[in-house]
Amino acid sequence: MTDNTASNEPLTILLAKPRGFCAGVDRAIKIVEVALEKYGTPVYVRHEIVHNRHVVEDLEAKGAIFVDELDEAPDDRPIVFSAHGVPKNVPAEAERRRMIYLDATCPLVSKVHHEAEHQHLSGRRIVMIGHSGHPEVIGTMGQLPEGAIILIENVESVADLDIPANVPLAYITQTTLSVDDTAGILDALHNRFPDIHGPGKEDICYATTNRQAAVKAMAPQCDAMIVVGSTNSSNSRRLVEVAASMGCENAFLLQNAGALDWPRLDGVSRLGITAGASAPEVLVQELIDACRKRYDVTMEIVSVGDETTHFNLPRALSA
């Protein structure tokens, strides 16, 4: 990318808090690291453990091997399932092959799985709000027989639902959606199906909600906003959308500082920086350091609260 020489122009960086790793991502990465310590190399991982290339490449350097499906892994080595969750047939196949497997599914995603099973056993048809093809959606829909869950992605899809009025309904959602967009879809669902059942506690996770809240607080104060994260990270892409919806049109996703097209910051005096829940803090600090080499940087923290959530490792690793 194009590089600027140092300008010594002033630049105020507004840094979001919270940002970056959530408890589910932190747990998933530690599961792979502890498995490597316990079982030695290699340890196989089905799909990217989280959606971030930096994280994946770091784990590969430590001895992890990432595969798309179980049939690419041998029977005699451990395999870890990603934080996004897997359909039920995946652990069933691992058990059939007597593999050592470790489930790194985020506990908040597992909560959605349990909700889906509960509603299904209660005789309700389930509507899921989510993004088609996302691993979390595939994993959640794979908890139940085919056809038990109907996927919708937007408000317009609600009108297209072909469900008789006498069919009992429930809804669940992907955990990394836009809070505001989902609220609009839920309004449409409740208007069309007044008796539809929802979860006791919303499915969009605390980390997604908090990071979007920080961006909402920052965006009106920024000339531009950078979201550090990978292009296949749902929660990171939502942060870009939230920033734009709050008036910061020059908002964009950035994998790392080396990928920044510096002319995009021409004329920017107040730059917002945040990171998706799967982006490590080292990438944020590298971006800030790169800015310091080109600008006279002043830092401001925009905080919407602290996060204290922690998830334990699977019993097989903590024993």
Can you identify the CATH class of the largest domain?
A: Alpha Beta
Q: Structural class, judged by helices and strands?
A: alpha/beta
The fourth-level CATH homologous superfamily of the largest domain is 4-hydroxy-3-methylbut-2-enyl diphosphate reductase, catalytic domain
- Strand elements, count: 12
Q: Which quaternary structure do these chains form?
A: single chain
Q: How many structural domains does the protein architecture include?
A: 3
**Mean pLDDT across all amino acids:** 96
The percentage helix is 25-40%
User: In angstroms, what separates the terminal alpha carbons?
Assistant: 48 Å
Strand order, largest beta sheet: 10-9-11-1-12
Instruction: Return the CATH architecture of the largest domain.
Output: 3-Layer(aba) Sandwich
| Radius of gyration computed on alpha carbons | 21 Å
How is the CATH topology of the largest domain named?
Answer: Cobalt-precorrin-4 Transmethylase, domain 1
Which residue ranges are poorly predicted, with pLDDT under 50 across at least 5 consecutive positions? Answer: none
Total DSSP helices = 11
Largest sheet: 5 strands, parallel
